Amino acid sequence: MSFSSTAGTCIIPTLSRIVLCAAFLPGGYNKFKDVEFSGADAQKLIDLGVIDAPSQASLSTGRSIVLASFQDDDPTTDPTPAAVQDPPPAAAEVVEEVLDLGEDTPPAEAEAPATGTYRAKGLHHVTLLVEKAGLPAPVWMARLTAFTELVGGGLLFVGLFSRVWGLGLAIVMGVAFYVTSLPALLGAGNLFTGLFNLPMDVFTGMFTQLGLFVLAFGVFLTGAGPISLDRALFRKTVDEDDDEDDEV
Fold it and tell me: Each residue of 57-78: pLDDT tens digit?
């Protein structure tokens, strides 16, 4: 067997698996760590049911102005003179405008982003990206992505079910390109001219995704190579197929 054949059937698949493992195994592991979300991101995760919605009391904590309906009634506390005075005309108009909101208009508290910070799994950064792109089931897609990166990256190192994980990671990179790099590329021009207008960090990230896609899809097409558990476990089947081809 020539060196080119050896490189194509052994060296390249093995190096591809090692690179994919080094890229995806730490990434999948970190997606299962708790990180902090705040502001609009936290509110979106609350709406998706990922984070428990805060109680009404916690929503009003720390606010300088709170509507009377959200204040605790304390019968032991005498009202201050300012509380029993009629509001000035400007304030009265504001209160009247708030109270005259239609039934279909959500309260101002529901529209405002969540206050404070909330902890959730890091994989929900993917949830936010998928939801923003308008794809279905963003929470489950993020969980499947993290699982594929963690388990698939680890098993590719030893070469077990390599074609399955190669296809899965190729799909992950394809979706990542669709929701992150493609909008940036189209926003900078078109598929060709945008390449010359992208910021360097976006340009580098885009071709990192494409490079990992090519490596993963290559493992799906060619298999894990001879230095793998796939070859050790399924060698008999491969040898039988080769013998049948020789007989034909």
Answer: 344 444 444 443 444 555 555 5
